Amino acid sequence: MLKKIRCLTGDIFFRIEDSFGKYKLNIDRKIVSILMYHGLETDPGRLVCNYLDITPESCLKEIRFYQRQGYKLISIDELDCLGDRRYNNNAYLIISFDDGFLNTFEHIRNWLKDEKIPVMMAICPELVENNGIFWWDEVRARFQLMKTNTIELEIDNGKSYFTKNDMVKFEEKCERLPHNNLLSLLCQLRNKTDYISEDQIRDSKYYREIMKWDDINLLAEDNLFSIASHSLAHELAINIPEQELKENSIKSRQMIKEKTGYDTKYYVYPSGKCSEKTDEVLSQCGFTHTFSTDASTNYLESIKIRLNRFRGIGYGSTNLRYYAHKWNKEHKIMSPIS
User: Fold this and answer.
1) What's the pTM?
2) Using one digit for the tens of pLDDT, what is the confidence trace for 257-268?
3) Cα atoms in the 13 Å half-sphere on the side-chain side of 101
């Protein structure tokens, strides 16, 4: 009860402060902030399983909150035009969605049409083409459905043991491995749990279906919608050889153009893992802008190829005080917020 009272009191104070403009930006040069989202989910059980997903309502409210503080929504295709005289605002906001989950489709379609919210969607064309499953969704499903309490796998020429509760630990280990080693480890996991069928994985609460090309093309009919490469099949740029990065990024760009007609110039790094070298390689492959997951804004005058993105956490009645704290922390260098 005490926790609920504190939460309610915090929400009231936040709304009062917001209405008096406490969080409004006060800046004297152009900035570009990018909000990064993944899935939009209304099922509480699935929200718990996929921590990057938020509700559509809280997502839209978060976008509106940024607008109230002085941000103007723009398409990523307008980024290189912000130096023009007609763009006389100082703060611009770009909305991005990673992975192309189907649970975002209807909401994005409605927002494009009714709310006039530009959206950049980052997709992995090979997974779209093959109706693939993201490896972490498969891992979570296999750990959930595992019949044994412990599983033995060979990693780095040694044996490692994982319990059913070590799902996060296993995922973190996977992310640190070179891509070919990751694929090898996933093969081991599949062999050890070969009694779990693909249908069972797709029926799991951890699995999220991705859009098909028809879905993406329907969204692409709107000029406010743009497409970015999210690699070929979500391989991390820093975990593959330079030549493979070149070949995969060129192929992903070609596939997107072939399937949608959209000639993308944007590359969204899976998991945000990148370096100056990967930026250089992607620039050589025709990408004008890359996107990380570093939580900070971008000063227009300093933008070269890579842009930072904030993770959108949703603006909801259960986290407004945390939201206020986060907003203050991320924007204190630009505004007089203490």
Assistant:
1) 0.91
2) 999 999 999 999
3) 20
Rounded to an integer, what distance in angstroms lies between the CA atom of residue 275 and that of residue 233? Answer: 19
Span of 96-100, 155-159, 175-179, 284-288 with lowest mean pLDDT = 155-159
Lowest mean pLDDT among 10-19, 36-45, 197-206, 293-302: 10-19
What are the residue ranges of helices labelled H in 204-275? 213-220, 242-260
Q: Angle 109-305-333 (CA atoms, 0-180°, nearest 5)? A: 85
Helix, strand, coil tally for the chain in percent (to 5): 45, 15, 35
- The residue count of the chain comes to 338
318-338 burial: b if 16+ Cβ within 10 Å, else e: ebbeebbeebeeebeebbebe
Judge contact between 253 and 285, C-beta under 8 A.
yes
d(CA 307, CA 266): 10
Angstrom distance (rounded) from CA 47 to CA 208 = 11
Domain boundaries, the chain: 2-131+209-331, 135-203
Are the C-beta atoms of 35 and 66 separated by less than 8 Å? yes
138, 139, 173, 135: which is closest to 154 by C-alpha?
173
Contact, 283 vs 6, CB < 8 A?
A: no
The C-alpha atoms of residue 144 and residue 228 are separated, in whole angstroms, by 32
Q: Which fold has domain 2-131+209-331?
A: TIM Barrel (3.20.20)
The helix or strand, by DSSP H or E, that contains position 73, with its residue range, turns out to be strand 72-73
Distance CA 51, CA 40 (A): 11
Which amino acid makes up residue 192? K
